[in-house]
Amino acid sequence: MKVLANDGVSQSGIDALENKGFEVLTTTVAQDQLVNYINENEISVLLVRSATKVRTDIIDNCPSLKIIGRGGVGMDNIDVAYAREKGLHVINTPAASSGSVAELVFAHLYGSVRFLHDANRNMPLEGDSKFKNLKKAYAGGTELRGKTLGVIGIGRIGQATAKIAIGVGMNVIAYDPYIEEVEIPVEFFDGQSLTFKIKTVSKEEVLKKADFFTLHVPAQKEYVIGKPEIEQMKDGAGIINAARGGVVDEVALVDALEKEKLSFAGLDVFENEPSPAIKVLMNTKVSLTPHIGAATGEAQDRIGQELADQIITILQ
């Protein structure tokens, strides 16, 4: 049977599938050519990340297809319910990239509270001529230790982020409409571990008490953080969004940054991917990455292996 990894897959995943007799194709096929390619090559398994969309045209017109796999967590680029109605298996890898996304959240947090995103813009331009001015401009940093992190969505990635926050010495409060309490195990280098219980509270309480916010929710029809939510936050709060574009109202976000209601934002995802708004990209208070939350070698190895394991279990 043939597997098309249209957005790529790790070598570990390829090896695991080939060892079980699957043929793995890593050709990147254009969206409008996918149906023909799948049919001509009798593809049984289509693996995607976020770039390829698997909608009804593919589901209805590709009779050889048995499995649609998403390398990652969110499956908003797949018509999941419709595919399952038509008898297809739809799989994803919800746990594989949690640690990588959580570490990126803290890369944005640490960078933002010490102005690294802006310093790295200005030091190459003015570091040799205005060193003392830049030193003064970036002198008012903030420590994360002792601050409160508000986690909105305390699923797998939210918990992985909370784990780092606890290790850093932050207080963690969380809102999640589907989870009442979680236990967060924090493992140390020498084999010791401690477990922390976090009981979720109301969204309003998180908004009012947290110093910084991190979102870990699926795509929504409405903004999770918009102007009303920002107005409830502490003055000088910061927001990190490494979840999905569109869960934060970017117009309200930029306005709050310009009015100094918020001190910074860190964005890995955007409302208008792959062409983010220029106002967002050019704002000096925004730390930017191009949707790379799961883009570590370790996460991609785990994703590939986990997809391979599920495919083998289903088809063999």
TrEMBL record:
Q: Which domain of life is it from?
A: Bacteria
Q: Which residues form the signal peptide?
A: none
Tagged with keyword Transcription: no
What PROSITE patterns does this protein map onto? D_2_HYDROXYACID_DH_1
* Location of the D-isomer specific 2-hydroxyacid dehydrogenase catalytic domain: 5-316
Could you read off the lineage of the organism from its UniProt record?
A: Bacteria, Pseudomonadati, Bacteroidota, Flavobacteriia, Flavobacteriales
Similarity section = Belongs to the D-isomer specific 2-hydroxyacid dehydrogenase family.
Q: Name one GO molecular function term.
A: NAD binding
D-isomer specific 2-hydroxyacid dehydrogenase NAD-binding domain: from which residue to which, for each copy? 109-293
* Annotated source species: Aquimarina aggregata
| Matching Gene3D superfamilies | NAD(P)-binding Rossmann-like Domain
Q: What does the record list as GO biological process?
A: amino acid biosynthetic process
Q: Name one Pfam family in it.
A: 2-Hacid_dh
Question: Any idea which UniProt keywords this protein has?
Answer: Amino-acid biosynthesis, NAD, Oxidoreductase
Q: What name does UniProt use for this protein? A: 3-phosphoglycerate dehydrogenase
